[in-house]
Amino acid sequence: MNFDISNLLEAWDYQAGQIVVRKFKGKDGKEKIQLRVDLGLLQMNACGRPDGKQPYGHESLLEHFEHKLQKFRSEHNESDEGFRLNPEECAKLQQEAIQYHHRYICLFQLKEFDAVLRDTQRNIRVFDFVERFAEHPELAWALQQLRPQLLMMQIRAEGSKRLDAQDFEGAIRSVEEGLEEIRNFYREHGRGDLIDQSGEIQSLEGWINELRTARPLSEKEKLERDLQEAVRREDYEKAAAVRDALKSLSNK
After folding, report:
1. pLDDT tens track for 4-61
2. Cα–Cα distance between 133 and 152 in angstroms, integer?
């Protein structure tokens, strides 16, 4: 067996500051994703757990622990009081979540926005599960502090989907709602001081400004623009006609 991947790397240059990704079908018939990094490449499955493993016969560790919770409840009169995740279990769930993190970054670059939403929503389940059942709050925070970045990717995927459908208003609305969700996250965890420093918030605010600039004008906005221009040029006949058009549009 030849373990040297030099030929692969030489044919696929690493580009500093860029996310270079490709997707292909592996020998097992499953779709794979490769991410070029400075020292080589990362390969992952496009579906299921990224490394292809099925811990304890489940799709992922999250499903394994969810199954354990269901079993615990069935043995304790449907109560989860006393069910806890120890530090080692929390660490393993975090390591698994990082696999999905790498994949949804790649999927976003490939413009597979539905798959990004699938993986980000899956990691939110992990964050919520650990926050609820971790033995100590600091174990949960190790994951929770990653939530703003995850939410940013989820918001960008949802907004990009809407843009692909030419739904500028929907894209802007989803970003506005997402920004408020990230701000609320900091407030709820007593870190409102981080809102102004958040790179995720700054990035989304920059994007929403671009969206507002690029958004096509509605028929009403076009008429209002034409009215302002007619008044500026003192073309009162044109202004009157535009006012009539605006009135007609309002009555529809």
Report:
1. 989 989 999 998 888 999 999 999 999 999 999 999 999 999 999 999 999 999 999 9
2. 25
pLDDT in tens, 109-145: 999 999 999 999 999 999 999 999 999 988 898 899 9
Helix, strand, or coil (residue 187):
helix
For 180, the token pair is 């408020």
- Report the distance separating Cα 242 and Cα 69, nearest Å: 65
Instruction: Name which of 90-104, 193-207, 211-225 the model is least confident about.
Output: 211-225
3-state class (DSSP) for residue 2: coil
Bridge partners (DSSP) listed for residue 41: 36
| Domain covering 46-214: architecture | Alpha Horseshoe (1.25)
How far is the C-alpha of 155 from the C-alpha of 48, rounded, in Å? 22
Q: Report the SS3 class of residue 3.
A: coil
* Separation between Cα atoms, residue 91 and residue 86, nearest integer Å: 9
Vertex 107, ends 66 and 54: CA angle to 5°? 35
Q: What is the pTM of this model?
A: 0.84
Cβ–Cβ under 8 Å, residues 8 and 39? no
Look at residues 149, 152, 146, 124 and name the one whose alpha carbon lies nearest to residue 208: 152
Question: pLDDT tens-digit profile of 161-175?
Answer: 999 998 999 999 999
Distance (Å, whole) CA 187 – CA 181: 10
